[in-house]
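One such given next:
>
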Amino acid sequence: MLHLPEPFRFSTDGVPQRERIKIIRTLRERGICPIEPLPDHRVHVDIAKTFLPGLGIMSGTLCGVRQEGTAQTANDDLFFGVNVSGDGALVQRACEITTGAGDAFFLNVAAGAFAVVRPQRTRFVGLRVPRQAIAPLVPDLADERPRLIPRTTDSVRLLTSYLRGLLSSRMLAAPETARLLVRHIHDLIALSLGATGDAAALAEDRSVPAARLRAIKSDIVANLEDEGLTIGAVASRHGVTPRYVHRLFEREGVTYTQFVLRQRLETAYRALRDARFASWSISAIAYEVGFGDLSYFNRVFRRHYKRTPSDIKNGHGS
Protein backbone atom coordinates (compact mmCIF):
# COMPACT_ATOMS: atom_id res chain seq x y z
CA MET A 1 0.00 0.00 0.00
CA LEU A 2 1.26 3.47 -0.89
CA HIS A 3 1.89 5.61 2.19
CA LEU A 4 1.54 9.33 1.55
CA PRO A 5 2.88 12.13 3.79
CA GLU A 6 0.42 13.60 6.24
CA PRO A 7 -1.25 16.93 5.37
CA PHE A 8 0.58 19.92 6.80
CA ARG A 9 -0.55 23.44 7.73
CA PHE A 10 1.53 26.34 9.03
CA SER A 11 0.84 30.05 9.52
CA THR A 12 2.75 32.95 11.00
CA ASP A 13 -0.50 34.68 11.92
CA GLY A 14 -0.28 35.69 15.56
CA VAL A 15 3.52 35.36 15.58
CA PRO A 16 5.45 38.63 16.08
CA GLN A 17 7.57 39.67 13.09
CA ARG A 18 10.79 39.40 15.10
CA GLU A 19 10.12 35.70 15.81
CA ARG A 20 8.96 34.63 12.37
CA ILE A 21 12.40 34.25 10.80
CA LYS A 22 13.54 31.86 13.52
CA ILE A 23 10.41 29.71 13.23
CA ILE A 24 10.60 29.55 9.42
CA ARG A 25 14.26 28.55 9.51
CA THR A 26 13.48 25.84 12.05
CA LEU A 27 10.94 24.37 9.63
CA ARG A 28 13.54 24.50 6.88
CA GLU A 29 16.19 22.77 8.99
CA ARG A 30 13.74 20.01 9.84
CA GLY A 31 13.08 19.47 6.14
CA ILE A 32 9.40 20.37 6.49
CA CYS A 33 9.24 23.50 4.36
CA PRO A 34 12.15 24.86 2.24
CA ILE A 35 11.41 28.57 2.69
CA GLU A 36 14.02 31.26 3.38
CA PRO A 37 13.09 34.79 4.56
CA LEU A 38 14.27 37.65 2.33
CA PRO A 39 16.46 40.30 3.98
CA ASP A 40 14.73 43.56 4.90
CA HIS A 41 11.23 42.31 4.09
CA ARG A 42 8.17 41.79 6.22
CA VAL A 43 7.57 38.07 6.35
CA HIS A 44 4.23 36.30 6.14
CA VAL A 45 3.61 32.57 5.64
CA ASP A 46 0.26 30.79 5.55
CA ILE A 47 0.51 27.47 3.72
CA ALA A 48 -1.17 24.09 3.50
CA LYS A 49 0.25 20.93 1.92
CA THR A 50 -1.93 18.05 0.74
CA PHE A 51 -0.76 14.77 -0.78
CA LEU A 52 -2.77 12.52 -3.08
CA PRO A 53 -1.68 9.60 -5.27
CA GLY A 54 0.04 11.28 -8.22
CA LEU A 55 -0.29 14.82 -6.90
CA GLY A 56 1.18 17.07 -4.23
CA ILE A 57 -0.51 20.42 -3.57
CA MET A 58 0.95 23.35 -1.68
CA SER A 59 -1.23 26.43 -1.44
CA GLY A 60 -1.60 29.59 0.58
CA THR A 61 -0.13 33.05 0.93
CA LEU A 62 3.53 34.07 1.08
CA CYS A 63 5.28 37.40 1.50
CA GLY A 64 8.96 38.30 1.89
CA VAL A 65 10.27 34.79 1.32
CA ARG A 66 12.09 32.60 -1.16
CA GLN A 67 10.83 29.08 -1.85
CA GLU A 68 13.68 26.77 -2.76
CA GLY A 69 14.00 23.36 -4.37
CA THR A 70 17.01 21.22 -5.09
CA ALA A 71 17.62 19.01 -8.11
CA GLN A 72 16.66 15.43 -7.36
CA THR A 73 17.98 13.05 -10.00
CA ALA A 74 16.00 10.17 -8.54
CA ASN A 75 12.85 12.26 -8.60
CA ASP A 76 11.31 12.81 -12.00
CA ASP A 77 8.57 15.13 -10.77
CA LEU A 78 7.29 18.17 -12.61
CA PHE A 79 6.30 21.38 -10.85
CA PHE A 80 3.43 23.57 -12.02
CA GLY A 81 2.76 26.77 -10.10
CA VAL A 82 0.00 29.38 -10.35
CA ASN A 83 0.11 32.93 -9.01
CA VAL A 84 -3.51 33.37 -8.01
CA SER A 85 -2.71 36.95 -7.01
CA GLY A 86 0.47 38.98 -6.63
CA ASP A 87 3.81 38.91 -8.45
CA GLY A 88 6.88 36.74 -8.18
CA ALA A 89 9.93 35.40 -10.00
CA LEU A 90 11.11 31.90 -10.81
CA VAL A 91 14.84 31.17 -11.14
CA GLN A 92 16.32 27.87 -12.35
CA ARG A 93 19.93 27.71 -13.47
CA ALA A 94 20.49 30.66 -15.85
CA CYS A 95 16.79 31.18 -16.58
CA GLU A 96 14.58 33.70 -14.78
CA ILE A 97 10.84 34.14 -15.32
CA THR A 98 8.72 36.94 -13.89
CA THR A 99 5.14 35.99 -13.08
CA GLY A 100 2.17 38.26 -12.49
CA ALA A 101 -1.28 37.68 -11.06
CA GLY A 102 -2.96 34.81 -12.88
CA ASP A 103 0.20 33.59 -14.61
CA ALA A 104 1.48 30.03 -14.27
CA PHE A 105 4.93 28.52 -14.62
CA PHE A 106 6.31 25.04 -15.20
CA LEU A 107 9.65 23.35 -14.52
CA ASN A 108 11.36 19.97 -14.28
CA VAL A 109 12.52 19.30 -10.72
CA ALA A 110 15.45 17.17 -11.95
CA ALA A 111 16.76 19.94 -14.24
CA GLY A 112 18.50 21.86 -11.45
CA ALA A 113 18.04 23.75 -8.21
CA PHE A 114 15.32 26.37 -8.41
CA ALA A 115 13.77 29.15 -6.37
CA VAL A 116 10.50 31.07 -6.43
CA VAL A 117 10.99 34.56 -4.99
CA ARG A 118 7.95 36.27 -3.47
CA PRO A 119 8.93 39.70 -2.08
CA GLN A 120 5.34 40.95 -2.03
CA ARG A 121 2.21 39.26 -0.74
CA THR A 122 1.26 36.49 -3.16
CA ARG A 123 -1.51 33.90 -3.13
CA PHE A 124 -0.42 30.77 -4.95
CA VAL A 125 -0.99 27.10 -5.69
CA GLY A 126 1.94 24.78 -6.44
CA LEU A 127 1.45 21.30 -7.94
CA ARG A 128 3.98 18.46 -8.09
CA VAL A 129 3.12 15.65 -10.47
CA PRO A 130 5.02 12.60 -11.78
CA ARG A 131 6.42 13.08 -15.26
CA GLN A 132 4.82 9.81 -16.43
CA ALA A 133 1.38 11.26 -15.69
CA ILE A 134 1.88 14.17 -18.12
CA ALA A 135 4.37 12.82 -20.69
CA PRO A 136 1.86 10.76 -22.71
CA LEU A 137 -0.19 13.92 -23.28
CA VAL A 138 2.53 16.52 -23.97
CA PRO A 139 5.13 15.91 -26.70
CA ASP A 140 7.95 18.29 -25.72
CA LEU A 141 8.61 17.65 -22.01
CA ALA A 142 12.23 16.88 -22.93
CA ASP A 143 12.82 20.65 -23.07
CA GLU A 144 14.07 21.21 -19.53
CA ARG A 145 13.89 24.98 -19.50
CA PRO A 146 11.23 26.46 -17.19
CA ARG A 147 8.42 28.14 -19.02
CA LEU A 148 5.81 30.81 -18.41
CA ILE A 149 2.15 30.08 -19.20
CA PRO A 150 0.32 33.43 -19.47
CA ARG A 151 -2.84 34.21 -17.51
CA THR A 152 -4.70 34.54 -20.82
CA THR A 153 -4.39 30.80 -21.43
CA ASP A 154 -7.90 29.38 -21.07
CA SER A 155 -6.78 26.10 -19.48
CA VAL A 156 -4.74 27.99 -16.85
CA ARG A 157 -7.77 30.07 -15.91
CA LEU A 158 -9.89 26.93 -15.76
CA LEU A 159 -7.32 25.06 -13.68
CA THR A 160 -7.10 27.99 -11.26
CA SER A 161 -10.88 28.11 -10.84
CA TYR A 162 -11.04 24.34 -10.42
CA LEU A 163 -8.34 24.33 -7.75
CA ARG A 164 -9.96 27.25 -5.92
CA GLY A 165 -13.19 25.28 -5.68
CA LEU A 166 -11.46 22.09 -4.54
CA LEU A 167 -9.33 23.79 -1.91
CA SER A 168 -12.34 25.55 -0.41
CA SER A 169 -14.26 22.27 -0.11
CA ARG A 170 -13.57 18.89 1.47
CA MET A 171 -13.48 17.00 -1.80
CA LEU A 172 -9.70 16.47 -1.70
CA ALA A 173 -10.10 14.55 1.55
CA ALA A 174 -12.61 12.10 0.08
CA PRO A 175 -10.82 8.92 -1.07
CA GLU A 176 -13.64 7.96 -3.44
CA THR A 177 -13.18 11.13 -5.51
CA ALA A 178 -9.42 11.71 -5.17
CA ARG A 179 -8.36 9.63 -8.18
CA LEU A 180 -10.84 11.37 -10.48
CA LEU A 181 -9.83 14.84 -9.25
CA VAL A 182 -6.14 14.05 -9.78
CA ARG A 183 -6.85 12.92 -13.33
CA HIS A 184 -8.71 16.17 -14.04
CA ILE A 185 -5.77 18.20 -12.72
CA HIS A 186 -3.27 16.18 -14.78
CA ASP A 187 -5.34 16.80 -17.91
CA LEU A 188 -5.64 20.54 -17.25
CA ILE A 189 -1.88 20.80 -16.69
CA ALA A 190 -1.30 18.96 -19.97
CA LEU A 191 -3.63 21.31 -21.83
CA SER A 192 -1.87 24.31 -20.27
CA LEU A 193 1.44 22.94 -21.52
CA GLY A 194 0.18 22.59 -25.08
CA ALA A 195 -1.24 19.10 -25.46
CA THR A 196 -2.41 18.64 -29.06
CA GLY A 197 -4.16 16.16 -31.31
CA ASP A 198 -5.69 13.05 -29.79
CA ALA A 199 -4.12 13.78 -26.38
CA ALA A 200 -5.78 17.19 -26.23
CA ALA A 201 -9.10 15.76 -27.39
CA LEU A 202 -8.93 13.10 -24.68
CA ALA A 203 -8.15 15.64 -21.96
CA GLU A 204 -10.83 18.01 -23.23
CA ASP A 205 -13.45 15.28 -23.24
CA ARG A 206 -12.80 13.68 -19.86
CA SER A 207 -11.77 16.64 -17.70
CA VAL A 208 -12.68 20.06 -19.09
CA PRO A 209 -16.48 19.71 -18.67
CA ALA A 210 -16.07 18.48 -15.07
CA ALA A 211 -13.66 21.29 -14.28
CA ARG A 212 -15.91 23.94 -15.83
CA LEU A 213 -18.92 22.63 -13.94
CA ARG A 214 -17.00 22.65 -10.66
CA ALA A 215 -15.82 26.22 -11.31
CA ILE A 216 -19.35 27.37 -12.22
CA LYS A 217 -20.83 25.73 -9.12
CA SER A 218 -18.24 27.47 -6.93
CA ASP A 219 -19.09 30.77 -8.62
CA ILE A 220 -22.81 30.24 -7.92
CA VAL A 221 -22.26 29.37 -4.27
CA ALA A 222 -20.06 32.43 -3.80
CA ASN A 223 -22.70 34.75 -5.30
CA LEU A 224 -26.00 33.38 -4.01
CA GLU A 225 -26.99 36.76 -2.57
CA ASP A 226 -27.09 38.21 -6.08
CA GLU A 227 -30.71 38.18 -7.28
CA GLY A 228 -29.36 38.66 -10.80
CA LEU A 229 -27.47 35.36 -10.76
CA THR A 230 -28.72 34.51 -14.23
CA ILE A 231 -27.31 31.77 -16.40
CA GLY A 232 -26.28 34.45 -18.91
CA ALA A 233 -24.25 36.35 -16.32
CA VAL A 234 -22.53 33.20 -15.06
CA ALA A 235 -21.82 31.94 -18.58
CA SER A 236 -20.30 35.29 -19.52
CA ARG A 237 -17.95 35.23 -16.51
CA HIS A 238 -16.67 31.82 -17.57
CA GLY A 239 -16.36 32.58 -21.26
CA VAL A 240 -18.96 30.04 -22.41
CA THR A 241 -22.52 30.17 -23.74
CA PRO A 242 -25.67 29.69 -21.65
CA ARG A 243 -26.45 26.60 -23.73
CA TYR A 244 -23.09 25.09 -22.75
CA VAL A 245 -23.86 25.71 -19.07
CA HIS A 246 -27.24 24.04 -19.52
CA ARG A 247 -25.54 20.97 -21.02
CA LEU A 248 -23.08 20.75 -18.14
CA PHE A 249 -25.89 20.61 -15.60
CA GLU A 250 -27.92 18.22 -17.75
CA ARG A 251 -25.09 15.70 -17.40
CA GLU A 252 -25.95 15.53 -13.69
CA GLY A 253 -29.67 15.33 -14.28
CA VAL A 254 -30.42 18.79 -12.91
CA THR A 255 -31.10 22.19 -14.42
CA TYR A 256 -29.20 25.38 -13.68
CA THR A 257 -32.28 26.86 -12.03
CA GLN A 258 -32.79 23.79 -9.84
CA PHE A 259 -29.18 23.88 -8.69
CA VAL A 260 -29.31 27.57 -7.76
CA LEU A 261 -32.60 27.10 -5.91
CA ARG A 262 -31.26 24.09 -3.99
CA GLN A 263 -28.14 25.97 -2.94
CA ARG A 264 -30.18 28.95 -1.74
CA LEU A 265 -32.55 26.72 0.20
CA GLU A 266 -29.72 24.77 1.84
CA THR A 267 -27.92 27.97 2.78
CA ALA A 268 -31.11 29.44 4.25
CA TYR A 269 -31.79 26.21 6.15
CA ARG A 270 -28.33 26.26 7.75
CA ALA A 271 -28.72 29.94 8.69
CA LEU A 272 -32.13 29.33 10.27
CA ARG A 273 -30.58 26.65 12.53
CA ASP A 274 -27.42 28.63 13.31
CA ALA A 275 -27.38 30.44 16.66
CA ARG A 276 -25.23 33.18 15.14
CA PHE A 277 -28.27 34.26 13.08
CA ALA A 278 -30.78 34.01 15.94
CA SER A 279 -31.43 37.76 15.82
CA TRP A 280 -32.03 37.74 12.06
CA SER A 281 -35.60 37.69 10.80
CA ILE A 282 -36.70 35.04 8.34
CA SER A 283 -37.10 37.68 5.66
CA ALA A 284 -33.54 38.96 6.24
CA ILE A 285 -32.15 35.45 5.81
CA ALA A 286 -34.24 34.88 2.69
CA TYR A 287 -33.05 38.12 1.10
CA GLU A 288 -29.44 37.44 2.13
CA VAL A 289 -29.33 34.19 0.14
CA GLY A 290 -30.89 35.75 -2.96
CA PHE A 291 -34.65 35.31 -2.64
CA GLY A 292 -36.33 38.52 -3.75
CA ASP A 293 -39.86 37.35 -2.93
CA LEU A 294 -40.63 36.24 0.64
CA SER A 295 -43.86 34.48 -0.31
CA TYR A 296 -42.02 32.45 -2.95
CA PHE A 297 -39.28 31.60 -0.44
CA ASN A 298 -41.80 30.34 2.13
CA ARG A 299 -43.60 28.28 -0.50
CA VAL A 300 -40.55 26.53 -1.99
CA PHE A 301 -38.95 26.05 1.43
CA ARG A 302 -42.01 24.24 2.76
CA ARG A 303 -42.28 22.15 -0.38
CA HIS A 304 -38.63 21.08 -0.11
CA TYR A 305 -38.31 20.48 3.65
CA LYS A 306 -41.93 19.69 4.58
CA ARG A 307 -41.49 22.32 7.32
CA THR A 308 -41.90 26.07 7.37
CA PRO A 309 -38.95 28.40 7.90
CA SER A 310 -40.48 29.29 11.29
CA ASP A 311 -40.50 25.60 12.29
CA ILE A 312 -36.77 25.33 11.58
CA LYS A 313 -35.89 28.66 13.21
CA ASN A 314 -37.84 27.79 16.37
CA GLY A 315 -36.40 24.31 16.63
CA HIS A 316 -39.53 22.42 15.62
CA GLY A 317 -38.04 20.95 12.44
CA SER A 318 -35.42 18.28 11.90
